[in-house]
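User: Reviewer 2 asked us to show a designed sequence for the structure in our supplementary figure. I'm pasting the structure tokens here. Could you produce the per-position amino acids so we can include them in the response letter?
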């Protein structure tokens, strides 16, 4: 499952640089996550790095993008140009 940023985001900027997949970007009003790139940090870290740094805990799992671990690993390989 990809993660998503809710409208509680305070645009503090700390999540964007910690994402290993460059999935976080500044949207029109708040930061957003590209569900096509977010792997829940699978393959890089044990925990979603954006969740661990967000000071207002506004980055839940995105129920619109349900994926298995195998699907997340396949996405990681696509991100890295290996598939
Ligand atoms: Fe990036 Fe990991 Fe957060 Fe997904 S969970 S947006 S891959 S830091
Ligand atoms: Fe928004 Fe949280 Fe990212 Fe800060 S860390 S920009 S509050 S989502």
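Assistant: Here is a per-position design you can include in the supplement:
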């Amino acid at each position: 499952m990809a993660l998503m940023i809710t409208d509680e985001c305070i645009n503090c900027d700390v999540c964007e640089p910690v994402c290993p997949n460059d999935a976080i970007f500044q949207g029109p009003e708040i930061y957003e996550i590209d569900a096509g790139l977010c792997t829940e940090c699978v393959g890089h870290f044990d925990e979603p790095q954006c969740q661990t740094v967000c000071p207002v805990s506004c980055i839940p799992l995105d129920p619109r993008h349900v994926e298995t671990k195998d699907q997340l690993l396949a996405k990681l390989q696509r991100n890295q140009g290996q598939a």
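For the response letter, you might also mention the following. The radius of gyration is 12 Å. Residues 3, 18-19, 21, 23-24, 33, 38-41, 48-50 surround iron/sulfur cluster (ligand 1) (CB under 6 Å).
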